[in-house]
Design brief:
CATH class of the largest domain: Alpha Beta
CATH superfamily of the largest domain: Response regulator
Helix content: 40-55%
Order of helices and strands: HHEHEHEHEHEHH
CATH architecture of the largest domain: 3-Layer(aba) Sandwich
Distance between the termini: 73 Å
Number of helices: 8
Radius of gyration: 31 Å
Number of domains: 2
Number of strands: 5
Strand content: 5-15%
CATH topology of the largest domain: Rossmann fold
Structural class: alpha/beta
Largest sheet: 5 strands, parallel
Shape: rod-shaped
Length: about 240
């Protein structure tokens, strides 16, 4: 620790208020930082940052305290912090980084539907990636099979419909979470997709709240239990039928 700065005796009267003020400011920093650290998980990058600030502040406070005590008449003098210290709130901290967004691959041949789903998912805190065909969907998945937390897949699409896309998708990724969106689906087709690992089914038209509820439910269950099945979604009440 550095030696305390020595103050000439003839300057004592003018410097004591300044020294006391600086000490008071340092105590405020220490008090506020200590309160913050109590609520920060030990060992994180943020806690280490404020621990460093606290250590420097404590060292400087000790230096200033030694000066004030000496100028107040030695160790027997009583020097205390200003009552204002107790009124000081914790310092303003930088906002923590936001949690990573979940990426949703949206597949629908209707541009208006894509625009609507993009807006709803974005407002819900997700990162939507929108394509208009099964071919584009499969191409993206081949490039990055684990890059999407969920696939919203329309059934009625030209050239390659939702079921055909789903079959090809399963060859690329056996664990991708897929929700089928359609106005109507024959029971046999739906059962085939269920047996293939379909994660959910939304009947059009559906409300925005229903979409966000299902997306959140499937992603949450996938994070807790990767082996989550379509039947578990039905049991949880997350399914919405036409």
């Amino acid at each position: 620790m550095n030696e305390p700065t020595r103050i000439p005796i003839h300057h004592e009267a003018s410097l004591v208020p300044k020294v006391a003020s600086e000490l008071n400011n340092l105590i405020q920093i220490i008090s506020g930082t200590h309160s913050v650290l109590e609520n920060i998980w030990e060992g994180t990058e943020v806690s280490e940052k404020y621990l460093a600030i606290l250590r420097v502040s404590v060292g400087r406070a000790q230096q200033i305290m030694a000066q004030v005590v000496a100028q107040a008449g030695g160790a027997n003098g009583r020097v205390g912090p200003s009552p204002e210290v107790e009124k000081v709130s914790a310092p303003v901290l930088p906002a923590p980084p936001p949690p990573p967004k979940h990426t949703i691959l949206v597949v629908d041949d209707e541009q208006m539907v894509l625009s609507l789903l993009r807006d709803v998912l974005t407002e819900g805190g997700y990162e939507p990636v929108c394509v208009q065909s099964g071919f584009e969907c499969l191409n993206l998945l081949r490039r990055n099979p684990t890059g999407y937390d969920l696939v919203l897949l329309d059934l009625a699409m030209p050239f390659m419909d939702g079921e055909q896309t789903f079959e090809q998708l399963r060859r690329i990724s056996g664990t991708a979470k897929v929700v089928l969106t359609t106005g109507f689906c024959e029971k046999e087709r739906l059962e085939r997709m269920i047996s293939g690992g379909l994660s959910g089914y939304l009947g059009k038209p559906f409300r925005n709240e229903e979409l966000l509820l299902m997306v959140a439910s499937i992603i949450e269950r996938a994070e807790k239990k990767p082996s989550n099945s379509f039947n578990e979604e039905i049991a949880s009440g997350a399914m919405t039928h036409a």
